Amino acid sequence: MRRMASLTVAVLLTAGAVVPAAAAAADLTQISHTRYKLTEGGSFARYAPRVSALDGKLRRASFASVLADGNRAGRPLCRPTGISGAIGFCWQAGGDTDDKQWYPQGITGSWDASASGSYGGHKAMLVSWHSDNAPTPKGARISFVDYDDPAKVTYRHVLLVEPTSTDTFGPVKIHAGGIAWVGDHLYVADTKRGFRVFDLRHLWRTEADPSKSKIGKGSDGKYYAYDYRYVLPQVGSYGQSGNGSCSVSPPVTAPLCFSFVGLDRSTPTPSLIAGEYYFDGKGGSRLTRWALNAENKLADETAAAAYRSAHPKVQGALAYKDTYLLSTSSNSTTAGVLYRSRVGAASSTSHLPPGPEDLSYQASAKRLWALTEHPGNRQVIGIPLNLG
Q: Which candidate in 147, 213, 239, 320 could, as Cys together with 193 as Cys, close a disulfide (CB 3.0–4.6 Å)?
């Protein structure tokens, strides 16, 4: 990780103020994209009758009604960011701020969902959390964040579920390291395989479960979700032919690791930007671009473009016009880094608070959104940034 030794976490650079990269070598290079393929394998047709049947067996909920039913309150930014002009919020004190069973990962907003910047008449954010390192993993969940009034943020967690038949569903046991919201569809990174796809037109109300242990259809014929009162079902998926590994930086021929996913709304139709995080701490992460069609599904099984990044431990990425933004992290006390890159050129850098994850760009407000994951230091941060 490229570091600026004279700075500390307490004296961070403004994210919009960049420092020239130390080396002239290109940090983002284009590579052949034709070897990277994803197929949906009939998944949408397979899930459709299951979702349709369950639509008739559970109480339906609209996106707006779930947003209005927020049962947690966000707080103003609660720790120094060191970023001039930063806005955003902290999660509810106690549980969500300090919870070591659930970790926030991905972020996207209604500005990703539509060109108007709203969805169903609301400005909202979606944030993914994973529990795969918890003693009793419960899969992945999405925070539905009401951002109509930035001074009064409310939110509710919604569990992701996979319909396993026309009569029940189970948890979605993935890391959910990144998410991208396009139209009615929510793309969630599935680390080894590709993307899981969820549809915000299908939201189901479930029963209270004080034991927090029931999932799917119970013996009483009612539906449960570990005491989450709403669930969002999977409607499709895109997968590669082999499983990717995030252990070490691989050769370009190896299957991809889908650690995160961002969006590019500057293309004629939106496109997904997927990328890799490697535990060995070396560079060489690949980014792939996946074009979407008018129905917000993949336009082609083959990636539209592919790149190789020199930066280690990439946690999130997106693109806008000819600029790529990548976040990297080190640990819970060391500042993260935001790289601003163009293909074939050296990057410029600025600092982020420790533990940055996924990224989302709100073009109308010229603002980059990021979030941090470590317990006790979890914030959702809007950073002034003009990408043209």
A: 239
